Amino acid sequence: MAGSMVLVVRFWAAASLCVNAFPSFRTRVPNGFRVTCPTGTEGCLPGNTSAGQPDSICNGIGHRTCAGATLPLNPFGQALQKYNYTWTRELCEEDSDGDGLTNGEELGDPCCLWEDYDTPSTYTGTFAASHPGVPNVASGYVRPACATTAPASKAAKMNAFNPWEEQRQAEMFIDSYQIPAARTTYVDFAVNFPDESMDIFHVVFAEVILRSPAYLHHFIIKGCTKKWPDDKVGKVISRAESRSLNYCDTTFGGWAPGAPIVSMPSWLGRPVGGAARIVAFQIQAHFNNPSRVPCQISNDGFRIHYTPTLRNETATVFASTTLSLNPAMGVPAGKKRFFLTRSCQLDVKDDLGQPAKFHVATVNYHAHLLGREMYSELKQGSQTMDFGSSSIWHFDDQYNQNLLSMDVTLQTGDHIQTTCVFNSLDRTETVHFGGATTDEMCWATFVGWPGNVRANCSGHLWMGELSDDEPGLGLALRHKENASGFVWDGSDFNTGGNMLGGSMRTIACVDFPQAQGWCPSIIVAMKANASVDCNTDLRDYNPILDGQTILTICCSQACSAVCPGHTLCPASTTSTTPLDESLCRAQTTSTGSSGLSGQTTTRGASSLPVSDCYGAQLAASVALLLVVLIGDL
Where's the Copper type II ascorbate-dependent monooxygenase C-terminal domain (predicted)? Predict the structure, then answer.
């Protein structure tokens, strides 16, 4: 019908953006990892009694079932949401389930003295916590003296200014970037740090300003030594421009759902400014648009809370693994607990190359949609300890885990075993390691101090499979490297280095996104060398391509140029009609400009957010509509 249109509309309920089975919520209430599963409740899991858990634990204490991710929320979950996911006195003193005991009495904090990451008293740490969202029989409960329930030690405050510090904040934005109608897009943007009043500042906290939650997958922020030209601020820059116009090689921070960009305790600061060789930033953004919705605009950005009042210590970062890109490495389909593990032998030195010590503050894990469990195990001499593991991990909750209460100092000779566990039961093909949301990664990043110390890892990576009830800790003793079919030497952090054993050869015709830049030169080489054909292993071209052929990474280009008619090539190619970008420009014009400048700065008191939902809180006030216009306009 002339003039008609069909609206394809997708809604996200307001609650769905923030109401999830986020594992980090358990750190925000006392004994969140030690709640006994009520009799007859669904989703109970066996507890780790050696770690002080009951025989049966409830992980989703705010949800309809103990498995979590089930709605509606139970009365305690509704109360936790009402108090912004924070253990306030009001939440503590409330009796959410109406059984005669307050939430604090049920969780072992009857006098409401505990706060996030406090070391609990003996009373709280050994208390048999009951479920605050399911009525329990309260008979026989005797309230203890408050002195016996006070935390043994208070946790360091994170992401807060000290009373004597001058408070400033700066905001930097992407300037009205049109998100491509493509599944995966990697693109870089230039922004300048706007404050030039001093040579150095300390960053207290940095957070995302999320304006396109349906499309922005994550970003990494690199610090740059020179300011960008005004016409580049907020705009797309190429890696070539980055090299020719600037020098952006310092990782400042990164964001993924659930994670702040920078998170500091009260004595630690992340340096920025001319003396820190960071006066501008390069935002390396990853957009995910699997439905290929056109005309979507990004004005996303980030906010830095900082002070000219320098703190006593400067932060630094090291990673035990940052496996990101290897088309010869993957998670096989149909696996419940497939693991990748990295042996990390530490070498810790200061800037002068002398032996040093690294004090650990936080750990953050990163994977994509198949990630389910994350483990780090530290061995110092004959002692082995859990080093910030997450036996339940979600992509949407990539929080920084506070390790300060462990009081760990790393030095040369220490060993960290880091493991990512993946669930691919709903996949029908191998999921490779790469940059797309539907690919996988395995990262573990530690923040600590002092700033002049560097910790480096050496060691192999290998893969295998865990049984259903097998613990993730101690894995390297049960699944030894020499028994694995897939081993890499770890010489390259991003790719895993050279493959030492096994093969993960795939037989599907695939366009591996991060390999497309290599494809034309491989095809030219094939045409010039009669001994190279469509079935040739590409290891000699690049070691990380071990087990791959031109068809398993460059399907479309190879089938068109050198392998037409091959059995792996699709029978036909579906063409797509290019988007008329004038329609997007007209839409942008009609809705008005964003009104956002490349960066702003303010001074004075700064109200730091207490919710990890970030921009989702704003989005939760309305239904989010993604509208695709189809038909005659």
Answer: 323-450
Domain ranges of the chain: 31-155, 168-314, 317-506, 510-569
- Count CA within 13 A, CB hemisphere, residue 481: 16
3-state secondary structure of 55: coil
| Local structure of 122: helix, strand or coil | helix
Distance, CA of 156 to CA of 298 (rounded, Å): 36
Find out whether 168 and 308 touch, Cβ atoms under 8 Å. Answer: yes
CA distances from 540 to 324, 355, 501, 525, 549 (A): 21, 39, 16, 12, 11
The terminus-to-terminus CA distance of the chain in angstroms comes to 10
Closest by CA position to 340, among listed 380, 378, 369, 367: 367
Domain 317-506 has CATH 2.60.120.230: yes
**Range with the poorest average pLDDT among 124-128, 223-227, 301-305, 496-500:** 496-500
- Whether the link from the prior residue into 72 is cis, omega within 30° of 0, is yes
Tokens (6 digits) for 75: 């009365």
- pLDDT exceeds cutoff 80 at 331: yes
How far is it, in rounded angstroms, from Cα 389 to Cα 363? Answer: 9
Q: How far apart are CA 401 and CA 496, in angstroms?
A: 25
- Tens digits of per-residue pLDDT, 102-134? 999 999 999 999 998 999 999 999 999 999 999
Whole-angstrom Cα Rg for the chain: 26
- The 3-state DSSP class for residue 63 equals coil
Ramachandran area for residue 628 (φ above 0: left; ψ -120 to 50: alpha; else beta): beta
> Any idea which architecture 168-314 has in CATH?
Sandwich (2.60)
Q: Give the global pTM.
A: 0.77
Q: Is 490 exposed, middle or buried (0-12, 13-18, 19+ CB in 10 A)?
A: buried
What's the rounded Cα separation, in Å, for the pair 493 and 9?
42
